[in-house]
Structure to design on (133 residues):
């Protein structure tokens, strides 16, 4: 009986910890999704200075404002944004990675934004969606 009571107490404690931890994880996911959507909004608005100001040091070294503007011009060749799918958020190699499928008038693409532990943009990637994808 004592073993059962101990197990039940441990299980209850684990459930309580999980319940309290879940809203924090959801809030972190929501915050990461909001950050990624804001980056996409800023790119669509041509606000490249605001976007690059959010880059971490490695991103600033790898992608400057003119390069980012050139990438955005290529993306805009697919026409205006018609919609975005909900963000998918995952943890990978210590980064929060947000993937958003962006539908444009002539094509869709997957936008991936990696966010480091300081909330800075550590990666930005765009890939066309294969036909039927």
């Amino acid at each position: 009986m004592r073993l059962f009571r101990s197990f039940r107490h441990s299980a209850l404690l684990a459930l309580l910890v999980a319940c309290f931890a879940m809203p924090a994880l959801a809030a972190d996911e929501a915050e990461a999704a909001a950050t990624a959507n804001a980056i996409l909004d800023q790119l669509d608005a041509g606000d490249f200075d605001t976007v690059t100001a959010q880059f971490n040091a490695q991103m600033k070294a790898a992608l400057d404002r003119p390069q980012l503007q050139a990438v955005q011009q290529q993306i805009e060749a697919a026409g205006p944004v018609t919609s975005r799918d909900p963000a998918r958020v995952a943890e990978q190699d210590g980064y929060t990675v947000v993937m958003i499928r962006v539908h444009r008038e002539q094509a869709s693409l997957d936008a991936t934004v990696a966010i480091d532990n300081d909330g800075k943009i550590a990666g930005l990637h765009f890939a066309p969606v294969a036909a039927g994808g």
Observations:
- The chain has one domain: 2-128.
